[in-house]
Amino acid sequence: MKPDPSTAPLTSEKPQGIASIVPFYYGWLMIPIAMLAQACTSPGQTYGVSVFNKYLRESLQLSSDKVSFAYFLGTLLASLPLSFVGVLMDRFGIRKTMIGVVIALGITCMGASKVYNFWTLLLAFFFLRFLGQGALTLLSNNILAMWFSRRLGLASGIKSQAGALSMGLLPGAILWSIQSFGWRETFVYMGFTIWILLLPLLLLFFRNRPEDIGLLPDGESFPNANNEDEPPETTPSKNGNEMAFRDVLRTPTYWILLGINIIWGMIATAIIFHLVSIFESNQLTEKQAASCLFIFAMSIAAFQFLGGWLADHFRPTPLITVCLIGMACGTFCLVPLSYSFFIGVAFAILFGGSQGALNSIGNTVWPRFYGRANLGKIRGTIWTAAVIGSSAGPWLLSIMAEFKEGNFDLGLTVLALIFIPFIIASIWIRPPQIQTQ
Fold first, then answer.
1. Residue 328: how many other CB atoms lie within 10 Å
2. 187-211, pLDDT tens digit by residue?
3. Is 300's pLDDT higher than 50?
4. Is the dihedral of CA 143, 147, 153, 157 positive or negative?
5. Interhelix angle 161-181/46-60, nearest 10 degrees
6. Helix axes 137-147, 375-403, angle to 10 degrees
7. Domain ranges of the chain
């Protein structure tokens, strides 16, 4: 049987290798690497892909429906192999797996610059969503769970700023590049940029977990550090009880959180993908939609940090429930949007803030409830479900809008109501009961 990586033997109480010359806990260096990895997922994120939509339609002479369908189908297919990435992470470690993903994502960006019809666009969307929004996001989200336990919420809150800042800043930078150099050239530049930013850091500085270099999570001392007669033999998990994946599947909490991630991914992606159209259908402008998207991103950033702090000090159950209520109320805000632009601002703050807090809280739940040994497989299945949800969201909202002749009110009302059963179910989220012998 494969040994538990969270209880691997340690040969020294002192930091080893490069960690020995760093004057602080080496785990803090993992935060900027995780942040940069999250920013580099942008070629496969909805906010990154959406900037290319207009230019893809014009260049490839495809209708909006065909581009949307290619995006839906590519995302759906991309979810299928995603759980396998978690298995690779558990077996080979984050470092080796991420190096492979980064190399492949760079190649994919360059390949996307060569698309010429519907089928090549579908292939590009598949790899961009699988490697960017899927695999690289999954791996970057798991980095800090290996290095932090007691301060995992704080570390996750800091790291999560990367996603929000990327959403707020990178679409403008991508648009500038497209207008200055062309959309095909921009894809090539994005691929090279990802390689230049990430590969040197992964090869030189990144380490899978603190035990690999003679440290403990959070930089804590060994239990017997003051007793030289009892050298440490193993390091117990600092992130709760280690559970086998088959046992995780038997816990109700896993399935409740799985459902929450599906509807969260579905509704958030649907709204962001159609945000400009939603605003224009309510006699508001594209510029006002962009302003709300920026407020949305900044709300995510602010509340991710707050959510991380809350996760370190309070039980996750009421926090998750409040976040879901906030997202439902934020979705409802878009229904009467025609009355005032400031209703859109309320949506951005409520939905963005709740999503940001839920993201940080969710990052702490998995290692604290189920441990680190099978974290890749566990979160791989959860992220697969989230990607499936995100693939369906834009398409379903588009269908409901077409049924109402371009009016999104019915679809937005349905999406908001979908939150209600999951708000109720979230009350039953509990840490697993571990059988002791």
1. 21
2. 999 999 999 999 999 999 999 988 8
3. yes
4. negative
5. 20
6. 140
7. 27-206+240-428
Pick the closest to residue 132 from 170, 105, 162, 163 (CA basis). 105
Residue 254 is which amino acid?
Y
Between these two residues, 324 and 164, which has the higher pLDDT value? 324
Token pair listed for 290: 């962009």
* Cβ neighbour number for residue 350 with a 10 Å cutoff: 21
Structure-token match 């407020």, residue found: 295
One-letter amino acid for residue 319 of the chain: L
Burial class (CB in 10 A: 0-12, 13-18, 19+), 112: buried
Overall pTM surpassing 0.90 (yes/no): no
Segment 101-153, tens digit of pLDDT = 999 999 999 999 999 999 999 999 999 999 998 899 989 988 988 888 888 88
Q: Which distant-in-sequence residues (6+ apart) come within 8 Å of 329 by Cβ?
A: 350, 416
Q: How many CB atoms lie within 10 A of CB 436?
A: 5
**Contact residues for 89 (Cβ-Cβ < 8 A; gap 6+):** 97, 138, 139, 142, 375, 376, 380
Any idea of the CA torsion for 11, 372, 316, 162, to the nearest 10 degrees? 90
Beta-carbon contacts of residue 427 (< 8 Å; ≥ 6 apart): 317, 321
pLDDT single digits (tens) 334-349:
999 988 899 999 999 9
Q: Which fold has domain 27-206+240-428?
A: Growth Hormone; Chain: A; (1.20.1250)
Distance CA 211, CA 225 (A): 15
Long-range contacts: 272-278, Cβ < 8 Å, 24+? 272/46, 272/47, 272/50, 272/296, 273/46, 273/50, 273/68, 273/71, 273/393, 273/394, 273/397, 274/394, 274/397, 274/398, 274/401, 274/408, 277/401, 277/408, 278/334, 278/337, 278/408, 278/412
Number of other CB atoms surrounding residue 305 within 10 Å: 21
List of residues 6+ apart from 163 with CB closer than 8 A: 38, 39, 300, 304, 359
Contact 129, 229 (CB under 8 A): no
Distance in Å from the first CA to the final CA of the chain: 20
